[in-house]
Design goal:
By secondary structure, the chain is an alpha/beta fold. The protein folds into 3 domains: 6-398, TIM Barrel; 420-630, Glycoside hydrolase family 3 C-terminal domain (Rossmann fold, 3-Layer(aba) Sandwich), CATH 3.40.50; 673-792, Immunoglobulin-like. The protein is built from 23 helices and 31 strands. Helix 13 crosses helix 14 (335-345). The radius of gyration is 27 Å and the shape is globular. The two termini are 42 Å apart. Residues 1-14 have low confidence and may be disordered.
């Protein structure tokens, strides 16, 4: 930082090195609050603002051959800007230009993070360690790590316990390499399938999102605060605050138009649940809500998040979103005003390092931002560093990283998450599972053997041997079969197509497995915005890349791109029994496949073990029980088509009905289940009201399997509009053939509440309908219960 407040510098210079050595903030026996208060009392204004600066991390090291070390730029950042953290130090992808050759592998990563921390501590006056923040929603975005299914696939498991275990593994891999903060959970609601980032979400339902989000937080941060110091956990960063996923026209980061009641009833519900779970950091969004940019939304960031909900972590801007107040939203005229508006709204930390810095210092000097507000922000970031134990033990054991990262347990866990995420949409005449005695199998399609197409956005380059494609999974499963592979066509490009070869292979086969869909695979010819979002155009358009999803790739249609549908139609025309496997990041229009293809599996982006998991389902070694976390439309004109819309019931269109092609919660199994004996008991009064529900589920088939029991409610009469139905409980349960299990749920007042005309959250007295079934449309059991008094929700 070029500008230095001399008065504070002179005061700080009066403290001798010996005084600092024995300063109370270095005493691990003191409380976090005591240590924070002491440390901030010793800091200059430029040291404080430096703590709020988080530049791009991958520029802070250099690697030549097998030798790596910190860069001169990093040394300058510590000396001149006194930075408090780095984002994406270990990140590798086409945007960062970090590859398998010049990026950091786990052991190298641990060495660099140790060097980064050592230099910061030894070359700054107060020896404050850095927060090292990493992308981590479906695995640490670094070389050699375990790549799990993307969030939309995670949600398809309907298994929060499994997702918590996955988050624990991700956190362990991050911490073993020396970083300490993971970006996740993403709690955006996906009601707009044209939006490019649907794959990063847990779907369209706020309750399902909340349960998955809490699992990620617990997995990242641990069961209790002291777990943050055990070397296996990281601080979680929730994103994006708030209502990011429903921008106008599906344009990423565009304006959001939601009413206050819808905002709090739906979009803020999973945020509140995350705050109550102790999430340590919240990230703002690029979008605006009703004309107010998220990074400038004081009402939400300060009034709601801080004052009403008691959030005591720190708020960080999304990359360059402070600058975006000036350059994108045009709500301020200068960089100084952008910094002032963001800071005063409640944004504590600048991601990217170009939004605060001198502009914020100028705002302090001009009186636009008080130093008390700066202190408030700095205290929050310091508190997280103390909670993580960074002041007492900032280093990791370098040799341990390669033992922990992508170990055998984590690989098996990636396989299990992928298995449980696979959703069977159709299985006409029980074509699945396939017979293991098959001799001739055709594997066809754009995504059958494309490693990066099955990994999703925010994925680092990985060694080929670390990824199992669908073709490879089938080859592993059926080593004695004649497996003929023909790509047939690409996801988008139409010049590299050979449909006749695919048809010939299908004719020679006993079954054709056609793997189609989309891709979020970035390549090195793609151009990127300052924020890291990809641009749709590329430098070389003679052959189109596959990428049609992932940040920046919004769609105006939802058809299978290129000649994929033509390929599928040609294979079906052969008469060979055909299974369609979909690998993609968003719902696509599947009307023709739904009518004409005998069997359809949806695997979303299944991660590194996707090929093995899909093969397990195809050949009956795993009984699918994935359920859709989003509704699949029949037409672009139906959007939005989410299931929990407010009354009145939707009317049909001239061309089609209003129902989705596949509803929220839908998914088939090789087993058949029967529901019975629904019982309900209401007890307690007021805030202590409790509704206990039990039912029996029987597996009446000859195949062991999982059922996902889903509980929905409807407020029969409400003073404001309420949903036609809303999910308020679910349980994935394994039931053996012929076995009956009792499933129990509990409803508390919060889950029955709404925001009335005065925006008070309460349960209104009256009747509620209870619906239990296998999807939002497949309701098996129903009953009603009565709430006899209004119950206000105050927490």
């Amino acid at each position: 930082m070029k500008k230095i407040c001399l008065c504070f510098l002179l005061i700080s210079n009066l403290l001798s090195a010996q005084d600092l050595k024995n300063a109370p903030y270095k005493n691990s026996q003191l409380s976090v609050d005591e240590r924070v208060e002491n440390l901030i009392s010793l800091m200059t204004i430029d040291e404080k603002i430096g703590q709020l600066t988080t530049p791009l991390g991958w520029k802070m090291y250099k690697k030549e051959g097998n030798r790596s070390g910190i860069s001169e730029l990093y040394k300058e950042e510590i000396k001149n800007r006194k930075i408090g953290g780095l984002w994406g130090l270990l990140r590798a992808d086409p945007w960062t230009q970090k590859t398998l050759e010049n990026g950091l592998h786990p052991k190298e990563a641990a060495k660099i993070t140790n060097a980064i921390q050592k230099y910061a501590i030894e070359n700054s006056r107060l020896g404050i360690p850095l927060l090292l923040e990493e992308e981590a929603m479906h695995g640490h975005m670094a070389i050699g790590t375990t790549v799990f299914p993307t969030a939309i696939g995670q949600a398809s498991t309907w298994n929060p316990r499994l997702i918590m275990t996955m988050a624990e593994a991700i956190a362990e891999e991050i911490r073993a390499q020396g970083s300490n903060t993971g970006y996740g959970p993403i709690i955006d609601i996906a009601r707009e399938p044209r939006w490019s980032r649907v794959e990063e979400t847990f779907g369209e339902d706020s309750y399902l999102i909340a349960q998955m989000g809490k699992s990620i937080i617990k997995g990242f941060q641990g069961e209790k605060e002291s777990d943050l110091e055990d070397g296996k956990h990281v601080a979680a960063t929730l994103k994006h605050f708030a209502a990011y996923g429903v921008s106008e026209g599906g344009h990423n980061g565009a304006a959001v138009h939601v009413g206050q009641r819808d905002l709090f009833q739906n979009y803020m519900y999973p945020v509140k649940e995350a705050v109550d779970s102790g999430v340590l950091s919240v990230m703002t969004a690029y979008s605006s809500i009703d004309g107010i940019p998220s990074t400038a939304h004081k009402s939400l960031l300060t009034n709601t998040l801080r004052e009403n909900w008691g959030f005591d972590g720190f708020v960080i801007s999304d990359l360059a979103s402070i600058e975006g107040l000036l350059g994108d939203h045009h709500v301020v005229g200068t960089s100084e005003d952008a910094a002032a508006v963001a800071m005063n709204a409640g944004v504590d930390v600048d991601l990217g390092g170009n939004g605060y810095d001198d502009a914020l210092l100028d705002a302090v000097h001009s009186g636009k931002v008080s130093e008390e507000r700066i202190d408030e922000a700095v205290k929050r970031i310091l508190a997280v560093k103390f909670k993580l134990g960074l002041f007492d033990d900032p280093y990791v054991k370098e040799k341990e990283a390669e033992k922990i990262v992508r170990n055998s347990e984590h690989i098996e866990l990636a396989t299990e998450v992928a298995r449980q995420s696979v959703t069977m949409l159709k299985n006409e005449d029980n074509i699945l599972p396939l017979n293991k005695e098959l001799k001739n199998i055709a594997v066809i399609g754009s995504n059958a053997d494309m490693q990066y197409n099955q990994l999703g956005d925010y994925t680092a380059p990985q060694s080929e041997e670390n990824i199992v494609t669908v073709l490879e999974g089938i080859q592993h499963k059926m080593p004695n079969a004649n497996i003929e592979y023909v790509k047939g066509t690409a996801v988008r490009d139409t010049t590299q197509t050979d449909i006749p070869a695919a048809v010939a292979a299908a004719k020679r086969a006993e079954v054709a497995i056609v793997v189609l869909g989309g891709s979020s695979a970035r390549d090195f010819k793609t151009e990127y915005l300052e924020t890291g979002a990809a641009t749709v155009s590329s430098k070389e358009d003679q052959i189109l890349g596959d990428m049609e999803s992932g940040e920046g790739y919004d769609r105006s249609t939802l058809n299978l791109m290129g000649r994929q549908l033509e390929l599928l139609q040609a294979v079906i025309e052969t008469g060979t029994p055909t299974v369609l496997v979909l690998i993609k990041g968003r719902p696509l229009l599947l009307n023709w496949p739904s009518e004409n293809v005998p069997s359809i599996l949806d695997a979303w982006y299944p991660g590194q073990e996707g090929g093995n998991a899909i093969a397990d389902v195809l050949f009956g070694d795993f009984n699918p029980a994935g359920r859709l976390p989003v509704s699949v439309p029949k037409s672009l004109g139906q959007i939005p088509v989410y299931y929990n819309y407010w009354f009145p019931n939707r009317r049909d269109y001239v061309e089609t009905d209003a129902k989705p092609l596949y509803p929220f919660g839908f998914g088939l199994s090789y087993s058949e289940f029967e529901y019975s004996d629904l019982k309900l008991k209401t007890s307690g009064k007021g805030k202590n009201t409790k509704i206990e529900i039990s039912l029996k589920v029987s597996n009446i088939s000859e195949v062991d399997g999982d059922e996902v029991v889903q509980l929905y409610i409807r407020d029969m009469v409400s003073s404001v509009l309420s949903p036609v139905k809303q999910l308020r409980g679910f349980e994935r349960v394994t039931i053996a053939s012929g076995e009956t299990k009792t499933i129990q749920f509990e409803l508390l007042p919060k889950e029955l509440s709404l925001f009335n005309a005065e925006m008070k959250q309460l349960v209104e007295a009256g009747a509620f309908k209870l619906m239990i079934g296998s999807s939002s449309e497949d309701i098996r059991l129903e009953t009603t219960f009565e709430i006899t008094e209004n119950i206000e929700i105050t927490k």
